[in-house]
């Protein structure tokens, strides 16, 4: 394979953005050279001012195929990801049908990917009540870790786990050093908000208070400490949980945390009534809360941003009736880029997990697009 040299005024490196020439030998990066380096032995491609950056890993994507392919399938999901600079997606165990809670179901999902992948794709397994016996076989079959909900997942075929369910599987995951990803909301049945205006965003926000998240995060820190099982908190929204997370990390617990761009970019104060496209769970909170999320990201307490990309047809988002009560809203439709500079943290950490507890398995567990 002839050597290749890629030159740009804007090469994103772990140390920051700079002009450089990347020398590639045998398909691998061999050296990061000065911009004007002599690379006569290689085929030089100068992309000018266009940025060259590592392919982004998104570990939180719901592709929905098979079963809900009309929401989105592997072909369009991975094609769109590639257009946005993402080269590896890790697919959540829902909202496909069947959900990825057994090896048989994983094989059905894998079969659905054939001929459709434009990026690398890995799979998370699911923890639901009664599938503890499937955990070891799913690990052997190559899943990268497991996802559990602590509140209703939004689809009835993926029921939420109880603490007892987690206690059964966490020793297994600890032994394999694989992460348990948790949707952290411990919900309390309270229908009061449903009596109020279904179009009101403040009413919806009040229906999923920070305390739900904070109590769930506290429980997961406690279980993480007890079992020493890697725990990953997905889409953190409540800034109240930042301090206990920081303290847990300071104690050396194998705990990682992501937030979503929608919690950083949007604020509750700006969401008008009826704008159900902003409905997600946990909800987008107030600016003062979100400023603290930004600070935690910059400080490395929040490890990275993941999209929680999870499309749904407009009718399920109540696009016409604009009522938060009925609209699907486990995840956010919106895709927005962070707008604040994060110069103080390495680019590789802003958008994707480094080789931490969330990304330890060998690449052989990831499916690659056919040439
Ligand atoms: Zn999700």
CATH architecture title of the largest domain: Alpha-Beta Barrel
Q: Any idea of the CATH class of the largest domain?
A: Alpha Beta
For the biggest sheet, the summary is: 6 strands, parallel
N-to-C order of helices and strands:
EEEEEEHEHEEHEHEHHEHEHHEH
The chain-level structural class is: alpha/beta
Name the beta content range: 15-25%
Number of distinct helices: 10
Full CATH superfamily name of the largest domain: Metal-dependent hydrolases
What is the number of beta strands?
14
CATH topology label of the largest domain: TIM Barrel
Overall average residue pLDDT = 88
Strand order of the biggest β-sheet? 9-10-11-12-13-14
Domain Amidohydrolase-related: 52-310
Cofactor: Zn(2+)
Keywords: Hydrolase, Metal-binding, Zinc
EC number: 3.5.2.5
Characterization of this structure:
This protein has about 375 residues and is an alpha/beta fold. It has 2 domains: about 5-50, no CATH class; about 55-365, Alpha-Beta Barrel (TIM Barrel). About 25% of the residues lie in helices and about 20% in strands. It has 10 helices and 14 strands. It has helices at about 75-85, 105-115, 135-140, 165-175, 200-205, 210-225, 240-250, 260-265, 285-300, 345-350, and strands at about 5-15, 15-25, 30-35, 45, 50, 55-60, 85-90, 120-125, 125, 145-150, 180-185, 230-235, 255-260, 305. The strands form 3 sheets. Strands 9-10-11-12-13-14 form a 6-stranded parallel sheet. Strands 1, 2, 3, 4 and 5 form a 5-stranded mixed sheet that branches. A hairpin with a 2-residue loop joins strand 1 and strand 2 (about 15-25). Helix 4 crosses helix 6. It is globular, with a radius of gyration of 21 Å. The structure holds zinc ion. The site of zinc ion has 6 residues, from loops.
């Amino acid at each position: 394979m002839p050597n290749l040299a890629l030159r740009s005024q804007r090469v994103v490196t772990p140390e920051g953005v700079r002009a450089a020439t990347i020398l590639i030998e045998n398909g691998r990066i061999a050296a990061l050279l000065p911009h004007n380096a002599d690379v006569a032995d290689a085929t030089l491609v100068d992309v000018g001012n266009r940025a060259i950056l590592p392919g982004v890993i998104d570990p939180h994507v719901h592709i929905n195929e098979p079963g809900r392919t009309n929401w989105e399938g592997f072909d369009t999901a991975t094609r769109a990801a590639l257009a946005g600079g993402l080269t590896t997606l890790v697919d959540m165990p829902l909202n496909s049908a069947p959900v990825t809670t057994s090896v048989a179901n994983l094989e059905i999902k894998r079969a659905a990917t054939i001929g459709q992948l434009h990026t690398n794709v890995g799979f998370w397994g699911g923890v639901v009540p009664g599938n503890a016996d499937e955990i070891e076989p799913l690990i052997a079959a190559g899943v990268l870790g497991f996802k559990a909900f602590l509140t209703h997942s939004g689809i009835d075929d993926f029921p939420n786990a109880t603490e007892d369910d987690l206690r059964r599987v966490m020793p297994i995951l600890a032994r394999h050093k694989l992460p348990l990803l948790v949707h952290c909301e411990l919900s309390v049945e309270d229908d009061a908000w449903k009596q109020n205006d279904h179009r009101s965003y403040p009413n919806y926000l009040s229906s999923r208070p920070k305390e739900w998240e904070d109590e769930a995060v506290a429980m997961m820190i406690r279980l993480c400490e007890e079992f020493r099982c890697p725990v990953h908190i997905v889409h953190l929204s409540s800034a109240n949980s930042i301090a206990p997370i920081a303290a847990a990390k300071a104690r050396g617990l194998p705990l990682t945390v992501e937030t979503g761009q929608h919690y950083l970019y949007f604020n509750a104060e700006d969401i008008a009534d009826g704008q159900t496209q902003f409905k997600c769970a946990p909800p987008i909170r107030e600016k003062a809360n979100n400023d603290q999320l930004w600070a935690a990201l910059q400080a490395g307490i929040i490890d990275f941003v993941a999209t929680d990309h999870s499309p749904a047809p407009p009718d399920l988002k109540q696009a016409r009736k604009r009522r938060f009560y009925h609209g699907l809203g486990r995840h956010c439709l919106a895709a927005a880029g962070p707008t604040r500079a994060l110069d103080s943290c390495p680019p590789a950490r802003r958008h994707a997990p480094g080789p931490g507890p969330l990304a330890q398995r060998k690449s052989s567990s990831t499916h690659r697009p056919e040439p």
